[in-house]
Design the sequence.
């Protein structure tokens, strides 16, 4: 019996509704859209066609499927289609996270919600219109599958192969998924040696699946290079800051997991190896960059759902054991207070039966039945089904309602929209990094100097960009060497300030941007 | 096992030898030295700024006055060698006590391995500043509290005076107060020696108030919650760099071992907030590592014994003696060959003479302020490492000029800047050259520009 799906559906519906509130405004979305359009029209590209600084340079089509999906949504429903795709993906992501937490403690949806809150909240910062969101959904599904594996389901492990295949073509974050599959395969081989060949076969199949992409083996170098040397000057690639809101939410999940692990007495079963295999590597990955913060809260939600109440109950028990006889209630004895604490503990951890958990966790005695499955009794199944269907309908209604009321047009207030008529056709424009994607989509006749694809530009093009925009000592030489004819930057950029001081003609200007002609 | 009792001494000796060999040259060392010197020369505490042109006369925190006097005292007694010896001594003290703490919970091989890693991480904070006192006192206090918890309650009497001294040495005393509060909280929750620990905590808080210009707990909390990120040591840990990676190792080892072996209420109360603190800024990473050392060493040894229950760890007496002799020789050699003079290649040394021989308001790099205060005292600085003195206006003006934000020329005029001393790759340097400012001095490190006469 599956855990009641009412809560996952309800929360997923609400999240999907919330995700439709923001208009399209991510600069990277535009170049993903352009690539998706060109893939549909001409096939998967091998070289850059959008810039004038690195034209013809080899580019890695490692997100081609994600880009095609984004463009398909746009082609079907214009900007609303993109928002609908975002809402659907967010709803699925949150639903899977919630379901995974609930599966660990089926009759305590409130606890599952609490345990998932950090993941839901941090994921809010990744609700962008990019293939990255698909990668996040794949990660949540992988965690759900792996926890089923821990409960004894080999089928769930086999399902990792198609998931990794799909993920590899959607987004570069598949590398994290592959890493987790390999680590869990190793853990399973140790805990369940009788099936170790099958686990090894699946792990190998997952590795092979990552080569089934137009990028081939290069997709490994891309992910690896990105992970080991993230470009820190890009905000989302910066070091995680626990004093910012996403960092704080991440730290809540991390520290709650640490405290739970320390205090929950029954957490130390043989299944600890699984928890370590999943949580420790994911925690490290989350610590590497701001954009990775969301992974750990997702991975930790089921752990917190399973053991959080145990840890809390242990705290209550400790306090009660120590202070039971000092509590003001008349005639209360220390043992009486301890009994009350036990009652609290039982209430928090109700329907938790360690036996099937331990069996499924390592001893391999329980194969088919889910752990901690306390689901409703048989006679309650029709009611559960009805409740689930109603919840699904409500979630669907929320999704449709959100799409119906979603903003119809993208929010371009952060982009130099009014500068478009003034832009010269052909090469020669130096544009701000974060406006590159916008220009690729809205000004196809004006190739960009640099844009959010970043990696094609790493090296000389990016150095030249920084030299000019930051007014480095060689900025004049770079201007001449590159043949830069116009500059589209923020008025506060050093080159804009200096250009104005030098009397460069201002072609157009607002408080947010300035277009200067280089004499 | 008795031989292992020498381990803290050995670790302290090794830490001393390494620390004394490290070159000085931290920019903040110089203004701490200058502050100590001013206080000695004037026979009073430095309560207002005397080093800058932008905040001259502004109230100045004297929270670290004793630390600054100690550093200046070491300088007076032994020059830069005196400072290096003070640094090495304080690090040795910290190393000694953290090793003792680790040995309480694990056999020597585990305790020493984890301690060595923690000390390696802490090397990022081995700079000649009052924070070295926090590095020494944090493990000392931890040892005191753990010993008291183990039954030696009289040791709690040392806590309030320790906090009193610490408060006047460095703002990191807040960390000490947090330690005492955590132990007191655990004692109260478990109702074991609750009164003595609670009393020690209350007296420690009272002692922390006896300071002519304490940083204040509120200010310390604010600092921790919103650190100035543009300062490298205040930036979040980067786990892909060596120090951040070791910090992550400690964090993840703690997490993994907590899942595997669990922990006590005290472990949770101690390590959870310190982990957050370490995540908040690089300068705080070592304190989590130091606090986690006994936990990690203890749990690792438990796992080891589950795997190899009959293991015995011992060293023959000759080996103990040999190691001791070797360490003594290492300490002697380190002291004899240490490069006591600070490394100043990152400072505008070439421009010193030109700066000293000219006048007018100077706009200088933030990182060079301390150096200029000490090396070119006749030229007040625009800004230096005493950050809070310059918040928010001076720092904003500084950034507006150096990074060439709109209005930079107005700021340059408003502050009547006559000379600019910057790194050559600063936007302002390029712009001022274009505007005809005269190059007074130039090398790969620094560019000194003079405003043209009108």
Sequence:
């Amino acid at each position: 019996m599956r855990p009641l799906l009412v809560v996952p559906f309800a929360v997923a519906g609400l999240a999907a509704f919330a995700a439709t509130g923001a208009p399209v405004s991510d600069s990277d979305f535009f170049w993903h859209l352009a690539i998706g359009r060109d893939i549909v029209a001409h096939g998967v590209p091998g070289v850059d066609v959008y810039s004038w600084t690195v034209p013809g340079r080899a580019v890695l089509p490692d997100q081609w499927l994600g880009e095609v999906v984004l463009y398909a949504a746009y082609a079907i429903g214009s900007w609303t289609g993109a928002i609908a795709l975002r809402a659907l993906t967010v709803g699925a992501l949150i639903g899977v996270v919630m379901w995974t937490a609930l599966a660990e403690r089926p009759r305590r949806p409130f606890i599952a919600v609490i345990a998932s809150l950090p993941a839901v909240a941090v994921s809010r910062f990744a609700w962008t219109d990019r293939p990255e969101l698909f990668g996040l959904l794949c990660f949540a599904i992988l965690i759900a599958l792996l926890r089923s594996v821990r409960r004894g389901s080999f089928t769930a492990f086999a399902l990792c192969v198609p998931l990794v295949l799909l993920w590899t073509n959607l987004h570069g974050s598949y590398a994290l998924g592959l890493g987790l599959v390999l680590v869990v395969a190793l853990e399973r081989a140790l805990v369940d040696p009788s099936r170790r060949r099958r686990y090894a076969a699946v792990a190998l199949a997952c590795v092979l699946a990552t080569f089934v992409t137009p990028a081939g083996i290069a997709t490994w170098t891309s992910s690896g290079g990105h992970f080991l040397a993230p470009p820190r000057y890009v905000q989302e690639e910066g070091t995680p800051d626990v004093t910012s809101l996403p960092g704080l939410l991440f730290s809540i999940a991390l520290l709650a997991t640490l405290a739970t692990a320390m205090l929950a007495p029954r957490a130390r079963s043989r299944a600890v190896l699984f928890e370590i295999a999943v949580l420790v590597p994911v925690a490290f990955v989350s610590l590497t960059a701001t954009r990775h913060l969301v992974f750990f809260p997702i991975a930790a939600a089921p752990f917190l759902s399973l053991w959080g109440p145990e840890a809390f109950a242990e705290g209550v028990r400790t306090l009660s054991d120590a202070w039971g006889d000092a509590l003001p209630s008349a005639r209360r004895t220390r043992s009486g207070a301890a009994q009350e604490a036990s009652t609290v503990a039982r209430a928090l951890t109700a329907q938790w039966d360690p036996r099937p958990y331990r069996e499924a966790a390592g001893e391999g005695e329980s194969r088919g039945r889910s752990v901690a499955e306390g689901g409703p009794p048989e006679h309650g199944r029709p009611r559960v089904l009805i409740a689930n269907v109603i919840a699904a309908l409500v979630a669907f209604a929320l999704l449709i309602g959100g799409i119906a009321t979603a903003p119809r047009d993208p929010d371009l207030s952060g982009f130099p929209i009014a500068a478009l008529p003034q832009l010269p056709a052909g090469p020669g424009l130096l544009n701000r990094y974060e406006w590159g994607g916008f220009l690729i989509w809205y000004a196809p006749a004006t190739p960009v100097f640099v844009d959010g694809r970043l990696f094609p530009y790493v090296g000389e093009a990016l150095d030249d960009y920084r030299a000019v925009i930051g007014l480095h000592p060689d900025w004049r030489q770079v201007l001449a060497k590159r043949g830069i004819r116009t500059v589209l930057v923020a008025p506060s950029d050093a080159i804009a300030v200096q250009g104005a001081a030098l009397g460069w003609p201002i072609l157009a200007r607002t408080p947010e941007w300035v277009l200067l002609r280089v004499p | 096992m008795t031989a292992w009792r020498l381990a803290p001494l050995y670790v302290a000796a090794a830490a001393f030898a390494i620390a004394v060999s490290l070159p000085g040259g931290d920019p903040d060392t110089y203004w701490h030295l200058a502050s100590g010197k001013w206080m000695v020369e004037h026979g009073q505490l430095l309560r207002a700024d005397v080093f800058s042109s932008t905040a001259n006369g502004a109230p100045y925190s004297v929270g670290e006055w004793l630390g600054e006097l100690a550093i200046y005292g070491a300088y007076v007694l032994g020059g830069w060698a005196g400072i290096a010896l003070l640094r090495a001594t304080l690090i040795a003290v910290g190393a000694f006590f953290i090793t003792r703490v680790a040995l309480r919970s694990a056999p020597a091989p585990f305790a020493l391995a984890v301690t060595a890693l923690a000390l390696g991480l802490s090397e990022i904070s081995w700079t000649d500043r009052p924070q070295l006192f926090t590095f020494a006192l944090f493990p000392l206090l931890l040892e005191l509290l753990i010993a008291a918890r183990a039954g030696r309650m009289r040791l709690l009497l040392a806590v309030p005076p320790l906090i009193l001294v610490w408060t006047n040495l460095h703002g990191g005393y807040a960390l000490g107060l947090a330690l005492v509060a955590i132990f007191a909280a655990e004692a109260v929750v478990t109702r074991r020696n609750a009164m003595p620990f609670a009393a020690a905590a209350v007296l420690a808080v009272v002692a922390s108030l006896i300071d002519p210009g304490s940083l204040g707990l509120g200010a310390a909390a604010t600092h921790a919650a919103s650190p100035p990120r543009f300062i490298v040591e205040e930036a979040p840990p980067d786990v892909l760099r060596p120090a951040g990676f070791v910090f992550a190792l400690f964090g993840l080892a703690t997490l993994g071992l907590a899942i595997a072996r669990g922990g006590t209420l005290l472990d949770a109360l101690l390590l959870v907030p310190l982990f957050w603190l370490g995540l908040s800024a690089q300068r705080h990473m070592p304190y989590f590592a130091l606090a986690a050392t006994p936990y990690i060493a203890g749990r690792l040894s438990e796992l080891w014994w589950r795997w190899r229950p009959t293991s015995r760890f011992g060293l023959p007496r000759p080996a103990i003696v040999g190691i001791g002799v070797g360490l003594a020789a290492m300490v002697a050699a380190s002291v004899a060959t240490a490069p006591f003079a600070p490394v100043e290649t990152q400072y505008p040394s070439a421009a010193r003479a030109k700066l000293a021989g000219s006048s007018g308001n100077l706009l200088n790099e933030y990182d060079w302020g301390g150096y200029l205060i000490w090396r070119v005292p006749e030229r007040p600085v625009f800004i230096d490492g005493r950050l809070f003195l310059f918040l928010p206006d001076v720092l904003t003006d500084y950034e507006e000029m150096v990074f060439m934000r709109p209005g930079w020329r107005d700021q340059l005029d408003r502050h009547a800047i006559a000379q600019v001393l910057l790194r050559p790759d600063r936007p302002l340097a390029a712009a001022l050259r274009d505007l005809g400012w005269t190059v007074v001095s130039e090398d790969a490190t620094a560019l000194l520009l003079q405003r043209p006469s009108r």
The first strand of chain A starts at residue 429 and ends at 431. Chain A has four domains: 1-124+387-410, 130-229, 237-269+293-375, 417-517. The first helix of chain A runs from residue 6 to 19.
